[in-house]
Amino acid sequence: MNSTNAETGKNYEKNAADYLKKSGFKIIEMNYLLPPVGEIDIIAKDKKTFVFVEVKFRKNKNFGSPCEFVNKSKQLKITKTALHYIKKNKIKNDIRFDVISICGEVTEHIKNAFCINDKNFYF
């Protein structure tokens, strides 16, 4: 990703965080990185629930909806990173995984976009 794409991505992540704040979420952390496992764009709280948010942007739907790019591989990276964050911070609250899909000027917030299906992830 060149610096222009990286800057564009950060701008859309900031827009998504602003969108969540307006919806009553509290932003806990942005761009939580766990090399080499993965990154979580936004960690927020929706009341008492910790929400791990992936932000996806596309100019248009010519190659599919932005949320379609949160495939199983991406979900696995996000869940492994989230579980590390949960364990490190001793979080006992409910959790969920959301996706914010931005296509052109349209923002869609998909709550419970995916879940952890493999019980081996639990610690």
Shape: globular
Largest sheet: 5 strands, mixed
Class by helix and strand content? alpha+beta
CATH fold naming? Trna Endonuclease, Chain: A, domain 1
Distance between the termini: 34 Å
Widest beta sheet: strand line-up:
1-2-3-4-5
Identify the quaternary structure here.
single chain
- CATH class categorisation: Alpha Beta
How does CATH name the architecture? Answer: 3-Layer(aba) Sandwich
Strand and helix layout:
Elements: H1 3-22, E1 26-34, E2 38-46, E3 49-58, H2 72-88, E4 95-103, E5 106-114
Parallel strand pairs: 3-4
Antiparallel strand pairs: 1-2, 2-3, 4-5
Tell me what you see in this structure:
The structure is a single chain. The protein has 123 residues and is an alpha+beta fold. The chain has a single domain (3-121), classed as 3-Layer(aba) Sandwich (Trna Endonuclease, Chain: A, domain 1). The chain is built from two helices and five strands. Strands 1-2-3-4-5 form a five-stranded mixed beta sheet. Strand 4 and strand 5 form a beta hairpin. It is globular. The termini are far apart.
